[in-house]
Amino acid sequence: MMICFPQYDLKGKTVLITGAASGIGLEMARQFAKSGANVCVADLDVEQAEIVVKQIVSEGGCALALGMDVSSEVQVDVGVDKVVTEFGRIDILISNAGIQIINPIDKLSFSEWKKMLAIHLDGAFLTTRAVLRYMYADKLGGTIIYMGSVHSHEASPLKAPYVTAKHGLLGLSRVVAKEGASHNVRSYVICPGFVKTPLVEQQIPLQAKEKNISEDEVVKNIMLGNTVDGEFTTTEDITQLALFLSVFPSNVFTGQSFIASHGWSMK
Length: 267
Prior knowledge:
The chain starts with 13 loop residues before the first strand and ends in a 7-residue tail after the last strand. By secondary structure, the protein is α/β, with parallel strands linked by helices. A 7-stranded parallel β-sheet has the order 3-2-1-4-5-6-7, sandwiched between helices. It is globular, with a radius of gyration of 18 Å. It contains 9 helices and 7 strands; from the N terminus they run βαβαβαβαβαβααααβ.
């Protein structure tokens, strides 16, 4: 079945997307560029980010590659400064960078725990603080979108730091919504179900090994068992939701989370 998505106009807007060299972030970078936005492709893998930028430019878009470790205060502040120097403004932040570690709590190292929270939560805070300074100062406002998960609302075994971090994004977004309202800044959390990205694909053998089941069983029973149709959420699904929220003209949804999971989670 062919699905026709609406077209959005983001001409003149600048979006910073972290973790944009692959997976959901990559699809967002491409589609935001096609909608006319200046796209800043931020990623730890700067070479891959540059490849993405070349592709966007070859298709008529406008983009900038940024090497960025979102857990580094210096790299985040310098990167956001570069965005504003290049494009004169920053209108949208999509805090998407993330990793996954599969381990039961009793086997989880403290360094693994800290790494997960640093990337997911510290990264969200640092990028938020950096862009808010500009959004507030230029009085143009803006939109901040955090990439949560169904695990922002649900718990699963073997993912303690991930679940903790994704729950934390709900709180951060809600505070940003309240503090940012007087500055015309809105915030949202998008909570995807399982999207078949490299991050999810690497979980399949890890879960199969930990649970002593086949990889097919991981996909069918764990990842898709609670969906209404046995389908993965797609990067395009999530991108379309981000585009919709980026252009929505009022505060009616600010501070809210949006679950996109084929019914895996319903809140």
